[in-house]
Amino acid sequence: MPSNIVLIGPMGSGKSSVGAALARRLSRPHVDTDHFFVARHGPIPRYFATYGEQAFRAEEERIVAELLDAPRPSVISLGGGSVTSAATRSLLTEHFVVMLDVTAAQAELRIGDAATRPVLTEGTDDPPIERWKRIYAEREPLYRQLADLVVSAEEASIEDRVDTIVEAMRKGRAEQV
């Protein structure tokens, strides 16, 4: 099975932006699971409101499995909560997984009012960044456990992060690329 490059990490870590730039650099397709979900089912907040988070996670799991099984190696950016699925975690072991990390301060700038991120706004009066911090604390061990490489948001630009990923692949995992 060909190896995909899979980007994981918390909301606001740059998975979509870095994934698109990495795919261009490697001449591979890029698929963002959130965008794929929206194309198939409509806006995520509406899906959440209609069917709930459990149904969203089940469909997200199916989409990730479908994309990981595609015949052409791709760069795939997963939604922040995808790693909560045991089935998804199991599938990721056969791919090159990169965790994009971000500080809470950086995430706060990137997520804004979180209007399109129902997991940060539904069922709480807390500011979105406080919910983000709790979710990050819960998921960080999963991200790190799955990651073949962790790239910090301290790498100032998207291109810097892409350079780090490409260099790591060349040094240690090139046989899977």
Biggest β-sheet strands, sense, barrel: 5 strands, parallel
Q: Could you tell me the mean pLDDT?
A: 87
Per CATH, the architecture is 3-Layer(aba) Sandwich
Tally of alpha and pi helices = 9
What number of domains?
1
- Radius of gyration equals 15 Å
CATH class: Alpha Beta
The SSE string, one letter per element, is EHEHHHEHEHHHEH
Q: Which descriptor suits the 3D outline? A: globular
What is the structural class? alpha/beta
Helix content: 55-70%
Question: Topology of this protein?
Answer:
Elements: E1 5-8, H1 15-26, E2 30-32, H2 33-41, H3 44-51, H4 53-68, E3 75-77, H5 86-92, E4 96-100, H6 104-111, H7 118-121, H8 128-146, E5 149-151, H9 158-173
Parallel strand pairs: 1-3, 1-4, 2-3, 4-5
Helix pairs in contact: 1-9, 2-4, 3-4, 4-5, 6-8
